[in-house]
User: What shape does this take?
Amino acid sequence: MMPKPWRKTETDDDHLLPDMLHSMGGSKSKISGEQCYEGAQTRQGSFWYVCRQGREVPISCVAPDGRTQFAIGQTFKTPNFLLQCSQPTPNGIQMAPVACITPAGQIVYPGNMFTPDQTFYFRCIQSENSLQTQLAGCVGPSQELVPDGGLLRRGQFLYKCQFTHNGIKLEAFACIFDNRQYYPDQDILTPAVWYRCETDGNGGIAIKLKGCIKQGQRQEVGKRFNDGVFAYICKLEDSRIYPQPVGCVERFYNGTMAEYDLGQKWLSEVTSFDYNRYVFECQKDGSWLRKNAVQCYYNTPEGAGYLRGGCMRKVGQRLVQCHGPTQQSPNVRMRIQEPYNDHSQLGGSLTAEGLAFC
Assistant: This one.
């Protein structure tokens, strides 16, 4: 950010310059060629004189407003400086700044500092018979002075106090996260969330949410990815970022993978040692997902087909059984009994297990 520099010198008031410092080298008996009359008061520029015993004696100064008089030894406040009317020599008079005035109206004497906005420090400096306010530095978190080039922390951010030809500015320098320093465009990685320290081009700096971290990999907001078991979308919601599970992943023996959305079903892969397979479904389990076997698929020389859980079927000399699901497990499991010739061989055991011909 570039705050407007607050600076004012007595030389900025051009109408004060001719009479800001004024002295007289001797007595004067006449003004503009006229006789000085005892007790008569006259004004010359920013000063008033009185005629005493034929000589003009200085008695007061005229404030920059052109109307207010203040006597020798007194002071007058302008918006930026405290002026004093003084008599440095018996016949001389001067009006000079003796202190700086803050925007709040406080008097600051030469050599002291003040801050009008708790952001920058200014110093009241005296040079010969003039005063000026100069930028001294930035205000630190404990009200300490931070000089040009110094660093100061505000909240989660580190700024550099930098003087420029236009004044002074706080330049974004770094972000602070978990007591570590990160420079602009540097990534901040936590076990689950990806942040980045970024500037906005106008002197501002922020820690921005960039995405999720899953198994050490960075994923941008809105991107779909998987970890070999489930599929996710990196979701940003109410300033909270998290990997939202949206599907299941089937890994095949050749190393490839396929993603299936919630509610989608697929047939498991054929293996070299087993032609019997399962139908899997990607199901919701609370706030998570599960890949559950929901149907049995048999493939025998006598025929192939699907069985839902709780069913059994005679296929040739085989009795194909699809058990489950149960309260203990949401998955079905297949069992083939052979040889099988007569239903009576079942007795009551399979019926007791909840199986029926279907």
